[in-house]
Design a protein that fits this description.
Largest sheet: 6 strands, antiparallel
Distance between the termini: 42 Å
Strand order of the largest sheet: 5-4-3-8-7-6
Strand content: 15-25%
Structural class: alpha+beta
Number of strands: 8
Number of helices: 10
Radius of gyration: 19 Å
Helix content: 40-55%
Length: 296
């Protein structure tokens, strides 16, 4: 079974006739600022902190299997000695740990304690889990909940569908830039136009890193197409044979902070089934948006 990765096209400003299908959020537009993680830092020591934080995110993305120092150095664009020095310092603080047999680095116990404290403010998995599970049961495809963090999305929940052939691109902790995987595309689409422009300005290399289908020009075309459809579609743009759908989930104020998505093999997303999958996805996204608004 080949390893499949999935992406989705985009949801942006939905015409009035489609707003009820796009989680039915308030029509008043609010400014949402994406964190600029690329700007130069002038605060003394900020570079070291930024490097360490980047390594923490990469280690977390490695999940239970962990990640070797060579891969971490390459992904962080650091030398191997610098990477090892920072990881050693983080291990001393309990933020990362190293498997003594494989040498791989993985999240440390202190991260768990910190996350437990922060969960009461930021975590919605407790109120979203049954909705994600319902989405997987109804569609028989793998269903996901992701959250926006700056210019990225992070997968929080995964529920497998009953169909035996699956796409394994996402699992808890995996990160993607906005505009690449389905969740990030759906979230990016609902940001105000000037924030979308600023995002593309900061990430001019998306097309080079993720393929020409993720160039700004092509992404903007799919943004316009999705406005007419009401939900995001990815017809195998990252890995041939995979397919994905995505829908944004909003805060009480109308900010796109999370996303629900579906992934699977392409023949399961044919024209006879796609509209129903889209309606089901949007209904679940609306349900979660409503639940979040009622709980906060």
């Amino acid at each position: 079974m080949p390893f499949l990765r999935s992406s989705c096209t985009i949801l942006r400003r939905i015409p009035p006739v489609l707003r009820a299908h796009a989680c039915d959020v308030a029509t008043a537009r609010r400014t949402v600022h994406i964190v600029d993680t690329s700007r130069k830092r002038t605060v003394p020591g900020a570079q070291s902190i930024a490097r360490a934080a980047h390594l923490l995110r990469l280690v977390t993305a490695g999940g239970e299997a962990g990640m070797p120092v060579a891969d971490l150095a390459r992904r962080a664009d650091l030398t191997r000695p610098t990477t090892h020095r920072l990881l050693t310092a983080l291990r001393e603080e309990g933020l990362v740990d190293q498997d003594e047999h494989t040498g791989r680095w993985m999240p440390g116990p202190e991260l768990y304690l910190m996350g437990s404290v922060a969960a009461s403010r930021y975590d919605i998995t407790a109120i979203a889990r049954d909705i994600v599970r319902s989405l997987a049961v109804r569609t028989e495809e793998s269903a996901f909940l992701s959250v926006r963090r700056g210019d990225e999305t992070v997968c929080l929940l995964r529920e497998e569908g009953s169909f035996p052939i699956r796409s394994f691109v996402l699992s808890e902790g995996v990160r993607f830039p906005l505009g690449v995987a389905s969740a990030g595309l759906a979230i990016l689409a609902f940001l105000p136009p000037h924030d979308v422009d600023a995002y593309f300005e900061r990430h001019r290399g998306l097309g080079e890193e993720w393929g020409i289908s993720h160039s700004e020009a092509r992404l903007r075309v799919r943004l316009r197409e999705t406005q007419e459809r009401g939900y995001a579609i990815n017809p195998g743009l990252i890995v041939e044979g995979s397919y994905g759908l995505g829908a944004a989930v909003f805060t009480r104020e109308g900010h796109p902070q999370w996303a629900l998505s579906l992934t699977g093999v392409q023949f399961r997303f044919g024209p006879d089934r796609l509209p129903e999958l889209g309606r089901t996805l949007l209904a679940h996204a609306h349900q979660l948006t409503t639940r979040i608004a009622a709980s906060r």
